Amino acid sequence: MSLKAALAFYALLHTVTCYTVSITAPDQALIGSSINVSAQLFDNGKPAGKGTYKFTWSDSTGHRKEIETTSASSNWTVVYTQEQPATHVLKVEVDKFFIFWVNEAKARKDIKLDNLLGGSLELIQNNVTRPQMFVSTQEAVNHSILLSELDMAFLRAKGYHIQTYWFQNCTYLGMSNALDYQATYPKAEQYYDVEALVVATLELPPEPIPSTTTTTTTTTTTTTTTTTTTTPATTTTSTTPATTTTPKPTTTSTTTTTTTTKPPARAKRDLIQAMHANAALLGLNLTSALKRQKDSAGNLSVALVNPLGVRRLSKLTVVPGTQPPFDCISKKFVAQDPKQIYGYFQHRIVSKDPVTGFGTTGKNWLQHWEIIHLNVNCKGSPPFELCTRVFTAPYNSTGNETCDRYEPLDSCSYEYKRYFSESKTILFFIRNEVSQTLNQVTINMYEAQRQSQLSVVVVPVTCTLVAVILVVFGVSYYIQRGNRFNVEVADFNFGDTQSVDMEYKTFPQRLFDSIRDAWTWPGQRRHSQSSVDLMADQPPSPGFGGNVGDVDSNLRYNTFN
């Protein structure tokens, strides 16, 4: 194949493929440990298929290795001997064989070599690792040092023993032979700086040995006895020689007794040792500090023993006559031993009260036209976040529900207003930095029995009565008014139009005629003073057929009611 054809084929391969390689390696490694690294070849974001590949590994120290394989991945182990801390560059190149080796991808990775153990100090509560520095005041905190897998494997392979020195707010708490220790922080809104120094050594640390004292006792005893007898003088004189008792010799005895002094209680001894160590670290005069205490040694300075009232659950010991190999003030190692491996870890702790005391005030039984008005409150350390979800009642929470849209709150007090047309179950999710609670409240809607209002009955009845009264009053008034009219009826003889009785009379004349007609006056003719009556008394004229004043009895005015 010609060179041009090969170049064209190579260009064609690169147009249809896009290879990348990724290196998996730790960011930090311990000097002297074995580092396992791996590389994976990808084709357009997916693991490449099988083929003939060559992985070329190299680093900045001169290590180099080529590995040919049919898979698209490769592993390599590199060991860095004891040397100064540094950062090394690890490289890998991947070639694929077609007709000749064609370079497909390259990658590099920085690895920091250090003489300190790598890892982190984690805070664990209720088997859950706290993502931040906040811890609950209601649960014990497990301060756990998580070493990197590479460093832990190295320590186990070499048979190292671990000692951990614990500090809190630059106060030495003690030592443990494990990578964790437990304590509680009952006071909220307090800040703590927890530091731990891990020392890995090949020698087993010595245990504290009680002291032994030898006491020598010398006892000297001296006894002297003297007896003298005298005989009085008589006529016969005789002398009795004196008898003297020789005193016993002085006896001296020497007794040697070996006594083992009982050491003080372990807890009290550790307490005193911790106080001395803390006083030295803080630059305090322990004697002056203790003189200020009025009580016994059991009530020693809290600032030197248990700062901020933290309650330790794990037992920490203090080796008599020794101080921790770390100065927390200057953050420097003290008398660092080159045969030992050290690791320094620290974590800030802020204590918080969890969310408790959830409660609501307001009506849970509502009519259909009423609006829900609930006041939600709780206790705990701010800030808070609240989220609500609504389900159709009846609904029982399983505890597995989740909520996405949280609303921040400065205090645990919230006013919930909403309208529902049917019964609902409301789930309230409230959380702060250390806890989360789920509470449910059921809202019941009901139909109230409707009762007729008083106005609905009284107004129609009253109006009806008023209408009846008005009708009765109108009818009676009409009848009464009709009875008051006077009806006058006249009986006329329209045949005789020449009657003089048609003469106009005044009311007094008619009244007089009516009275005259009502009573008959004996001996005289009834007549009025009208001109008609006077004409009736005169004799008729001879030219007329009758008297002009003659009045027909049928032509009389009659008045009646």
TrEMBL record:
<keyword id="KW-0812">Transmembrane</keyword>
<keyword id="KW-0472">Membrane</keyword>
<feature type="region of interest" description="Disordered">
    <location>
        <begin position="205"/>
        <end position="266"/>
    </location>
</feature>
<feature type="compositionally biased region" description="Low complexity">
    <location>
        <begin position="210"/>
        <end position="264"/>
    </location>
</feature>
<keyword id="KW-0732">Signal</keyword>
<dbReference type="InterPro" id="IPR045219">
    <property type="entry name" value="PKAT"/>
</dbReference>
<feature type="signal peptide">
    <location>
        <begin position="1"/>
        <end position="18"/>
    </location>
</feature>
<protein>
    <submittedName>
        <fullName>Uncharacterized protein</fullName>
    </submittedName>
</protein>
<dbReference type="GO" id="GO:0005886">
    <property type="term" value="C:plasma membrane"/>
</dbReference>
<feature type="transmembrane region" description="Helical">
    <location>
        <begin position="454"/>
        <end position="479"/>
    </location>
</feature>
<keyword id="KW-1133">Transmembrane helix</keyword>
